[in-house]
Design brief:
- By secondary structure, the protein is of the alpha/beta class.
- It has one domain: Rossmann fold (3-Layer(aba) Sandwich).
- The strands form two sheets. Strands 2, 4, 5, 6, 7 and 8 form a six-stranded parallel beta sheet that branches. Strands 1-3 form a two-stranded parallel sheet.
- Helix 1 crosses helix 6.
- The mean pLDDT is about 95.
- The structure holds flavin mononucleotide.
- The site of flavin mononucleotide has 16 residues, from helix 1.
- Flavin mononucleotide (FMN) binds next to helix 1.
C-alpha cells in the first residue's frame, strides 16, 4: 500500500444563489485541511465554467484546461451534489461530461448529498451512480448526507461522519493508486 498523499478535489455541483452545498464543500475541505494528513484537496466550483451554448462534452474540454489538469493530477473526486427534483443539477453533469476515462479512469469517487427534505440527497446520489460508473470512477459505499440543509449543515456527529467517509475514500483511493501504478 502506498503512503503517498492523495489529491482528491471537491466538485461543488451547483451554481444556485445561496447554495447550502457551498457550506458543505467548505466543511469537508476544512476537515481535510485540519485533520487528514493523507489527503490534499481543492474546491472546484461549477460556477467557474462558462459553457458555450452551441457545443458540449469532450469536444469542448480544450476550453477548460485547468479542469483537465486537475483531474489528471487527482487520485479521485468528492462530488457535492444538491438534490433537484430527485436528480442532479445540469451544471454538475456538464462539468463531469467534459472528461472521460483518460482523466477519471480507475480513480475513487465519494458523494455528499444536500437536500431541503429529510433524505439528505440519497436519491440524487443513486441517480449519479450510473453516471460515474460509465466514467470509470469507482464509488465508495459511504455517503455523506445533509438533510434539512437550509437549517444548517453542521450537526452533532458531522465531523465524525466526514472523517469516516474520508477513511473509506482514502482506502479505496490508495488501493486504486497502487493499481494504476503497478498493474498494467
Ligand atoms: C430545482 C430545485 C429542485 C429541488 N428539488 C428537491 C427535491 O427533490 N428534494 C429535496 O429534498 N429538495 C429539493 N430542492 C431543495 C434543495 O435540495 C435545497 O436547495 C438544498 O438546500 C440543497 O441545494 P442548494 O445547494 O441549492 O442549497 C430543490 C431545489 C431546487 C432549486
Amino acid at each position: 500500500m502506498t503512503d503517498e498523499k492523495l489529491f482528491i478535489p471537491i466538485l461543488l455541483g451547483t451554481n444556485r444563489k445561496d447554495r447550502a452545498s457551498e457550506k458543505v464543500a467548505a466543511l469537508i475541505a476544512a476537515h481535510i485541511d485540519k485533520n487528514r494528513e493523507d489527503i490534499e484537496t481543492v474546491i472546484v466550483d461549477v460556477r467557474d465554467f462558462a459553457f458555450p451554448i452551441d457545443n458540449y462534452g469532450q469536444d469542448i474540454k480544450g476550453q477548460f484546461p485547468q479542469w483537465k489538469e486537475t483531474m489528471m493530477d487527482a487520485d479521485g473526486l468528492i462530488i457535492v451534489t444538491p438534490e433537484y427534483n430527485h436528480g442532479y443539477p445540469g451544471p454538475l453533469k456538464s462539468v463531469l461530461d467534459l472528461l472521460h476515462h483518460t482523466e477519471y479512469g480507475n480513480k475513487v469517487v465519494g458523494f455528499a448529498g444536500v437536500s431541503a427534505g429529510p433524505w439528505g440527497g440519497a436519491r440524487v446520489i443513486e441517480n449519479l451512480l450510473p453516471v460515474v460508473r460509465e466514467l470509470k470512477l469507482s464509488a465508495i459505499r459511504t455517503d455523506l448526507l445533509f438533510p434539512f440543509a437550509q437549517k444548517g449543515v453542521e450537526n452533532e456527529g458531522t465531523e465524525e461522519r466526514i472523517d469516516g467517509f474520508l477513511t473509506d475514500l482514502s482506502f479505496v483511493g490508495k488501493s486504486l493508486k497502487w493499481g494504476r501504478k503497478n498493474i498494467t
